[in-house]
Specification:
Layout (H helix, E strand, L loop, with lengths): L1 E5 L7 H10 L2 E5 L2 H8 L5 E4 L8 H4 L6 E3 L8 H11 L4 E5 L6 H9 L9 E3 L3 E6 L2 E5 L5 E7 L4 E6 L9 E2 L5 E5 L4 E8 L1 E7 L5
Parallel strand pairs: 1-2, 1-5, 2-3, 3-4, 5-6
Antiparallel strand pairs: 6-7, 7-14, 8-13, 9-12, 9-14, 10-11, 10-13
Length: about 210
């Protein structure tokens, strides 16, 4: 099953995420993600958070009370973490994150850290980037000469092979703190095969297909 979390911050254009919203099984708005979702013309299956950054509080009145889980402002988890935990507990294993670009740096780092967890999002779409979690194998269509960057996440060193990059990743052994910035696509399909560990792969919006 596929779940989507729409969070606050700079969000992608609707055309970039329409396909995912139409095909998913469950949509959670994390706090001001409800504003973003309303802008897309969608209502969530559930809204979660302390609602401290929600711009249009009237949106809550349009939802049944059983679709709202409100939490105190002082809590141990961010609104996005609460949503991620909820989906995992309900058995969702393919989870996409929408929004969260720009804004406070600490919020961005918190979202980035989610990808190091055992149960983490598979994809994150912001206003300017599309981010993929690469755990085993991934094949992505991309425009030639597009920029693509990689960051190790999780606890294990990353060893991998690749095809279609200007600087292939074959034979590398990356630890946390290493990175591969501003690589380039030489082909229209990029293949990454993980031998150990997992990677975060970042492609600028507009350079993917």
């Amino acid at each position: 099953m596929t779940g989507i979390i729409v969070t606050g911050g700079e969000a992608p254009a609707f055309s970039r995420v329409e396909e995912y919203l139409q095909q998913c099984d469950f949509i959670i708005a994390a706090d001001s993600g409800l504003d973003t979702l309303a802008g897309y013309g969608y209502k969530p299956d559930l809204v979660m958070g302390d609602m401290d950054s929600l711009q249009d509080s009237t949106l809550l009145s349009e939802l049944p009370s059983d679709k709202i889980l409100k939490f105190p402002k002082d809590k141990d988890f961010t609104d996005t973490e609460l949503a991620l935990n909820y989906l995992h507990e309900k058995g969702y294993r393919d989870i996409y994150l929408i929004g969260g670009g720009g804004g406070r740096l600490d919020h961005t780092i918190a979202l980035y850290s989610l990808f190091s967890r055992e149960m983490s999002p598979l994809m994150w779409v912001t206003q300017k980037e599309k981010i993929f979690l690469v755990k085993e194998h991934i094949s992505v269509k991309i425009k030639k000469n597009s920029m693509i960057s990689f960051f190790p996440v999780g606890k294990k060193n990353c060893k991998m092979t690749s095809r279609g990059l200007k600087w292939e990743l074959n034979g590398l052994n990356w630890e946390i703190g290493d990175s591969g910035i501003s690589n380039r696509a030489l082909e229209e399909t990029i293949d990454i095969n993980m031998l150990s560990g997992k990677l975060m792969m970042i492609i600028p919006i507009g350079e993917d297909y």
